[in-house]
Design a protein that fits this description.
The complex is a heterodimer of chains A (122) and B (106). By secondary structure, chain A is an all-beta fold. Helix content of chain A is 0%, strand content 52%. Chain B is built from no helices and eleven strands. Classes of the chains: A mainly beta (122), B mainly beta (106).
């Protein structure tokens, strides 16, 4: 079965760039969209954006100016970069798979990574 | 942007109870709505997609209904493992989550 694993630094300094990678195992990155979601401590879920294996992406308008996503099909990985971080970007960051079902509308996040905690602090 | 509003923000219930959680969209999203369960320290788990379709492996005591702007997640006969936070998410446009409902043991 498909599994996702986030990786990257757990501590980032203010004004620097947060970089995370999600590795897909047990399945191919091809033919799906892949999402990043975050959850600040004690708060709800926030969609950051998603990227297709072809490289087509869509970002949360509130974060769009700071977000870049990329995909590496040869490594079965996709990545997130968030620039100019502040303490407000401290959160657990999750990667997830967007799935579509025949005859269904929209999509749902059916496979999630375990999440990785990123703290923004000097 | 489409805003998602969940109610109540928290709910106390007992094992065996039937509960209904509400999610409202700020505009028509058809049935492009999913429900997730999240336990402390864990990633969210997909329960329902396309408003009413049960994800594989999810117990049948969970059900979803609604279309347009009003949606409901119903849990019949609450089990101890069901006490968690629940989130709705629309995928009609730029995806957005509701703020969540925390289901607590009475």
């Amino acid at each position: 079965q498909v599994q996702l694993q986030e990786s990257g630094p757990g501590l980032v300094k203010p004004s620097e760039t947060l970089s995370l990678t999600c590795t897909v195992s047990g399945g191919s990155i091809i033919a799906y969209y892949w999402s990043w979601i975050r959850q600040p401590p004690g708060k709800g879920l926030e969609w950051i954006g998603h990227i297709h294996y072809s490289g087509k992406s869509n970002y949360n308008p509130s974060l769009k100016s700071r977000v870049t996503m990329s995909v590496d099909t040869s490594k079965n990985q996709f990545s997130l970069k968030l620039s100019s971080v502040t303490a407000a970007d401290t959160a657990v960051y999750y990667c997830a798979r967007n799935n579509f079902w025949s005859g269904s509308s929209g999509y749902a996040l059916d496979v999630w990574g375990q999440g990785t905690t990123v703290t923004v602090s000097s | 942007d489409i805003q998602m509003t969940q109610s109540p923000s928290s709910l106390s219930a007992s094992v065996g109870d039937r509960v209904s959680l509400s999610c409202r969209a700020s505009q028509n999203i058809g049935t492009s709505l999913s429900w997730y369960q999240q336990k402390p320290g864990k990633a969210p788990k997909l329960l329902i997609y396309t408003a009413s379709r049960l994800q594989s492996g999810v117990p049948s005591r969970f059900s979803g209904s609604g279309s347009g702007t009003d949606f409901t997640l119903t849990i019949t006969s609450l089990q101890p493992e069901d006490f968690a936070a629940y989130y709705c998410q629309q995928s009609y446009s730029a995806p957005a989550f509701g703020q969540g409902t925390r289901l607590e043991i009475k």
